[in-house]
Design a protein that fits this description.
The protein is an all-alpha fold. It has 13 helices and no strands. This is Endonuclease III.
Length: about 210
């Protein structure tokens, strides 16, 4: 078993490793980021990066998007998962926001927009440089956080709450850091031997080392 972990101290190397690392979505401004985040839900960042250039060429800003109809938007995002709902959400929020400078960057305002939950809002805030109001929990964090032992369960909202209670606000970028760790090292089949968190990781001490011994 790993020793009792002082997480605010133990998480620092992970946050430092991925500090300032850009989200895998390609974007040039907050408008493109917001649209990309909505489109990427239940789809892959890689796919959205393939779709986005023509979409943003046709609708370069929030004002242009606010004037489109489902019929004009479908050809650009028809291959995206759940595109029918995402089309409605994008048109609705564009008509509400109207201009790029009106894009909100508080958690409450973002989650009030159609198609944006806490995970998406936390990503948008982080990438736009707004102060963290929560912890980003995606499918990678749902895998990584319980393995580390910093949280338990599989409910993203409960995992976020546990991490927020464990770490001070200035360390809430740990969510994105865990996501990057999950993409690169703590995969479904983890590469424990090269992970910088193995000293404090519950999975490493209770599962990986035991499997090596056998």
């Amino acid at each position: 078993m790993p020793p009792k972990v002082n997480w605010p101290e133990a998480i620092k190397p992970l946050i430092e490793k991925y500090k300032g690392k850009k989200h895998p979505l390609d974007y040039e401004n907050t408008y493109q980021l917001l649209v990309g985040v909505i489109l990427s839900a239940q789809d892959s960042d890689k796919h959205i990066n393939q779709v986005a250039p023509k979409l943003f060429e046709a609708f370069p800003n929030m004002e242009a998007l606010s004037h489109c109809t489902p019929e004009t938007l479908f050809p650009f995002i028809g291959s995206v998962r759940n595109y029918a709902n995402k089309t409605k959400w994008l048109i609705s929020l564009a008509q509400k926001i109207q201009n790029d400078e009106n894009i909100p960057l508080t958690l409450d305002e973002l989650t009030a927009l159609p198609g944006i939950g806490r995970k998406s809002a936390n990503v948008i805030k982080r990438e736009a440089g707004a102060p963290a109001e929560g912890v980003m929990v995606d499918l990678h964090v749902v895998r990584v956080a319980p393995r580390l032992g910093i949280a338990s369960g599989t409910d993203p909202k409960k995992i976020e709450k546990q991490i927020m209670e464990t770490l001070p606000p200035e360390e809430w970028d740990a969510g994105m850091a865990m996501s990057f760790l999950g993409r690169e090292i703590c995969r479904p089949t983890p590469k424990c031997e090269i992970c910088l968190m193995k000293k404090v990781c519950n999975y490493y001490h209770t599962v990986f080392l035991n499997s090596v011994k056998q």
